Amino acid sequence: MWLRESEVLVMESLEPERELVDSMIEMLCTNGVRRLEDLQDLLACYLSLNAAEHHRTIVALFRRVVLVWIHLGSQRLLPGQ
Question: Which residue positions in the chain have pLDDT lower than 70?
Answer without folding.
Answer: 1-11, 74-81
